[in-house]
Design goal:
Layout: E1 5-8, E2 11-14, E3 34-36, H1 38-41, E4 48-52, H2 63-75, E5 84-88, H3 92-104, E6 107-113, H4 118-126, E7 130-134, H5 146-156, E8 160-161, H6 170-177, H7 179-186, E9 193-197, H8 202-214, E10 219-225, E11 259-263, H9 265-279, H10 285-300, E12 307-311, H11 325-330, H12 342-348, H13 365-375, E13 379-383, E14 394-399, H14 400-409, H15 418-421, E15 428-430, H16 435-441, E16 447-452, E17 455-461, H17 462-483
Parallel strand pairs: 4-12, 5-6, 5-8, 6-7, 9-10, 9-12, 10-11, 15-16
Antiparallel strand pairs: 1-2, 3-4, 13-14, 16-17
Helix pairs in contact: 2-3, 2-6, 6-8, 7-8, 9-10
Length: 484
């Protein structure tokens, strides 16, 4: 007999010692640390510190509202034993909900857009969830949008409950009750600026409500992807995930936000990579968005101010994208060629036509042919939206030869929409990838679409590349002749 002591794991533990063991993984959510960003912000007079939310068990800030929304649904009888949680998500909220579901015996169906990284889909499936993937380049009201698909699944699934993080008041309230108080306590009330990405708006609005109740002078800054509605865009597709919107969620309270700072995909991704290599913080692309905005805020702040930026998630869900040199190069974010690259070819193209000429899917075949002849080009991308286009808005392509072959047999096709007879999209290549890669691609295609900063920038044909190579060879020859 052990007597007044208990045997635990081979060690003797006194009864008066308090064991620190969480009852479940859900008890580990919250109380995430603050850390100074000395390497990327050390040159500034105003200190910048980060609230590192990947310390939550699900790897993101979304664990907080996930638990709170399910708790509320259970109290209100909206989610019953054996029920199914259905939610559109960029991944992080899904993980938080999946963790709660695993603990409490619920099924999960998550709806995601096709721009999310493969790791996120695999991660949700690892928790036992069903994942439905929808196109990103459609408006919210489209039946194929991930909002519409989620609504349909709720209607079709017995015992389904949709937390609806975009309109559920429990979402921001979870941050009023947890994130806000943590920030106030951790900074001893010295916080003067809070910066975070605007997704559902729950984090920003909830933290803002709490902090401004403690000190109305605290500034709340939303970091937003260029193109999102929060910074004045239309919500057209951008590449950074989990932040920004194409509609106004009711969980976002604009009255509490003092400033919105738009940040490009390029700056977001490069900052995320810098946080990993300079600070040792492997975080996601939206963390880069927030950090870029935080540095801008700190640069204009006083030395006595304290800027806190919330880094919402881990970078482990983006290893095949933001942290993959090949992916970054293919979208024109990184240079991966030591010699001639596609940007050099673009520099030699004639300036008599715009960099990118394209047709919209609703235009007629007649209009497409007229456009090609007007600019002297033989193929065009088909895309919806205005310049600057997003890569996800490119739907297909048309070539003059193909169109003429079709209308030769059927003149009525002249008045049909381009969308009805378009070919697949042109292959894409990054602006800073090699000309040699383009040559290989052009063996199987008549042209390539060059991406720069994640956006379609120009169409380059076989003749464009041939002209560049011949001119380059001529210049090299002339240079060698002059030297000799």
């Amino acid at each position: 007999m052990v007597g007044p002591e208990q045997l635990l794991g081979g060690d003797l533990v006194s009864e008066d010692q308090q064991m620190q063991i969480a009852d479940s993984v859900l008890d580990l959510v919250g109380n995430t640390p603050l850390v100074r960003l000395n390497q990327i912000a050390g040159h500034l007079d105003c200190p910048v510190v980060a609230k590192v939310e990947f310390f939550n068990p699900g790897g993101s800030v979304k664990d907080r509202p996930a638990i709170a929304m399910i708790d509320a649904a259970e109290r209100e009888g909206l989610l019953k034993p054996g029920g199914t949680i259905v939610e559109p998500t960029s991944g992080n909220t899904g993980v938080g909900l999946a963790i709660v579901a695993a603990q409490r015996g619920y099924k999960c169906i998550f709806v995601m857009t096709d721009k999310v990284s493969p790791e996120k889909v695999q991660l949700l499936r690892a928790y036992g969830a069903e994942v439905v993937v929808c196109p990103v380049a459609v408006p919210p009201e489209d039946p194929a949008s991930y909002y519409s698909v989620a609504e349909r699944l709720v209607a079709e699934t017995p015992g389904a409950f949709r937390p609806n993080q975009y309109s559920n008041p429990v979402n921001p309230q979870s941050h009023v009750e947890t994130t806000g108080p943590e920030l106030w306590e951790q900074t001893a009330g010295r916080i003067t600026h809070f910066v975070a990405g605007a997704g559902t708006g729950g984090t920003l609005s909830g933290v803002a409500e709490y902090l401004k109740s403690k000190n109305p002078d605290i500034k709340i800054i939303a970091a937003d992807p260029e193109g999102s509605v929060y910074s004045g865009g239309s919500g057209r597709p951008y590449l950074v995930e989990g932040v920004g919107e194409d509609f106004w969620p009711s969980t976002y309270n604009p009255d509490l936000i003092d400033e919105v700072i738009p940040v490009s995909d390029h700056d977001s991704f490069m900052m995320a990579r810098k946080l990993a290599t300079a600070e040792g913080l492997l975080v996601g692309g939206s963390c880069g968005t927030a950090a870029v905005a935080a540095l801008k805020v700190a640069a204009a702040a006083a030395p006595t101010d304290l800027v806190v930026v919330l880094l919402p998630d881990s970078g482990r869900g983006y290893l095949s994208k933001v942290f993959d040199d090949g992916w970054m190069s293919s979208y024109g974010f990184l240079r991966d060629c030591a010699g001639r690259c596609m940007a050099d070819v673009l520099g030699r193209k004639s300036d008599r036509i715009p960099n990118l000429v394209y047709v919209r899917p609703e235009q007629t075949v007649r209009e497409a042919i007229r456009t090609m002849r007007s600019y002297g080009v033989s193929q065009l991308p088909v895309a919806k939206g205005d310049m600057p286009l997003a890569a996800a808005e490119v739907m297909g392509s048309v070539s003059e030869l193909r169109l003429m072959e079709r209308v030769l047999d059927n003149a009525e096709l002249f008045e049909q929409s381009v969308e009805s007879i378009m070919s697949p999209p042109l292959p894409t290549i990054g602006a800073y990838q090699s000309v040699d890669m383009a040559v290989e691609m052009l063996e199987h295609a008549t042209a390539v679409l060059v991406l720069d900063g994640g956006r379609p920038h120009a169409v380059v044909s076989s003749s464009d590349v041939l002209r560049f190579l011949s001119e380059n060879a001529l210049e090299v020859g002339e240079s060698a002749g002059t030297t000799s």
